[in-house]
Amino acid sequence: MLSLQQLSKQYKNSELALDNVSFDVPSGQVIGLIGPSGAGKSTLIRCINRLIEPTHGAIYLDDVELTQLSTSKLRKQRRRIGMIFQEYALVERLSVMENVLSGTLGYVSFWQSFFRKFPEPLLQKAFGYLERVGLLEHANKRADQLSGGQKQRVGIARALAQEPSLLLIDEPTASLDPKTSRQIMRLIKEICKERNLPAIINIHDVVLAQTYVDRIIGLKAGKIVFDGSPSALNASVLTTIYGKEEWNTTPACEEEVSIAPVPNFQTKLELAI
Amino acid sequence: MVSSPMWRWTLLVLFLLYLGVAFSSIDLNFPRMLDGLTRGWRFVDGFLNPNFTSRWSDIQTGIIESLTMSVTATLVGILFSIPIGMGAASNISTKPFYFLCRFFITISRSMQEIIVAIFLVALFGFGAFAGFLTLTFATIGFLGKLLAEEIENIDKAPLEALKATGASWLQMIHYSIVPQITPRVVGLWLYRFDINFRESAVIGIVGAGGIGATLNTAIERYEYDSAGAILLMIIFIVFLCEYTSGYVRKWLI
Predict the structure, then answer these.
(1) How many angstroms separate the CA atoms of A273 and A36, rounded?
(2) What number is the ipTM of this complex?
(3) Which residues of B are less than 8 Å from A93 in CB distance?
(4) Chain B residues within 8 A of A81 when measuring between CB atoms
(5) Exposed, middle or buried: residue B159 (CB in 10 Å: 0-12, 13-18, 19+)?
(6) Which residues pair with A168 in a beta bridge?
(7) Which of A22, A205, B178, B200 is least surrounded by CB atoms within 10 angstroms?
(8) Domain range holding A131?
């Protein structure tokens, strides 16, 4: 379980990027973090593993307070927090397997990783994760030979190789086509359920979020302005989060191909904000 | 340009006047030039008929010394350029270390090899050791700067991703930066090797050993045919390096 308490972040010479943000994420819950660009979504998830240092507040992962840790203890805790990125963030010239194993670097010594002498159990697990994301036969390919969707699967396998207690996911589908986006979101959701993993997903696509997450948090100018179930997300809430827009109108042609079973408004909202 | 016609013409006349005066001040000595032409021709003639045999053992010694100098200076230079280049890359270094490394690189890059060689020959005496030190010093600055630039230009997403996995600093460098820069950097190492070989011919002239010393002796003795042979050897070896490095880089990418 993850708990954020009164988290704030102030960048030098600018307004508060995060303003007193508090919420809990129980095990197994997948949270969709939505909000306009610049609302602080990226800052929020990077504050959790302290890739960005928060200014105030506390973060508890199970019983460990993350904001007060020394560098070496922080490194140990980061192993427990898997992260998945928008542009995959793979090392293109390394093989798929090496990319997955790079998730275990926190568990092996420098020389073990230097000579690629990963302990047998870690290797077996890494193969298992590759199989789970459906890329076992690509293990020895170079990462730059894969398609976008496959790269994101490697990113997921790398995060799993950390044996995480929490997943932080930054715009996982922003560089993918709609079909692949749904497959990746489904995979993430399934994995979180299997392993009872809590996850926070930054996402722009509201319909996609509503389809695959358990709970939605809306962020605007660093403040939480919505926290509830996906079904409670209606036009007035969207206006609060994103500003005024004709949320319910849809061109007739899109009505027919509407894919998401969304209560209240069956619209395909590609929020290009 | 100049709008008033009177000014325009005055300026033109003044310019022509200056040109005339300037030309008349050149001291042309035609008999001396003719003399020089025959000497110049002997030079060209020597190069057209290179003589590898009469000074072969000197050439051989010189070439081997130059190659030894280049290989050792390149290797030691690479060894030192790695920490210095990493320190001089702003994205992975800390402020004081960054300025220290940049300072060293600037010093190394601003000193011409020949000047360093003259200084080191004065310090350590004639011979290959002074040459080795000169080339090493220049190599560290050259490769350090380029390595730092390569590191600063990497895609930083994988670096962030590895930081997030809890990898140590060295592991982050080794897994996310090394693979990204290897092909370019190895290419630069090979390139520096053939620069070092060519430079060894130049600094030899000021007493730092190698093929340059042999070349200098040959020219001082007016043995232009041997000098021609030496130049051809240098060109041949640089060619060889060029092709090998191209091949190695293709294999690496």
Answers:
(1) 6
(2) 0.84
(3) 179-180, 182
(4) 164
(5) buried
(6) A83, A200
(7) A22
(8) 92-163
Same domain for A135 and A174, yes or no, is no
Each residue's pLDDT, cut to its tens digit, for chain B (253 residues) gives 677 888 999 999 999 999 999 988 888 788 888 888 888 888 888 888 888 888 888 889 999 999 999 999 999 999 999 999 999 999 999 999 999 999 999 999 999 889 999 999 999 988 889 999 999 999 999 999 999 999 999 999 999 999 999 999 999 999 999 999 998 899 899 889 989 998 988 898 888 888 988 988 888 888 888 888 998 888 898 888 888 888 887 887 7
Same domain, A148 and A264: no
What CATH code is carried by the domain that includes residue B69? 1.10.3720.10
Q: Using the structure block, give the residue that is written with the tokens 């199989």.
A: A131
Tokens encoding A195: 């392993």
Instruction: Test B175 with A49 for CB contact under 8 angstroms.
Output: no
Residue written as token pair 């270390």: B97
Residues A172 and A73 in one domain: yes
Give chain B's domain count.
1
Side-chain-facing half-sphere of A22: CA atoms under 13 Å? 6
**Subunit contact B166:A114, Cβ cutoff 8 A:** no
Looking at the structure of chain A, the number of domains it has is 2
Domain contains B41: no
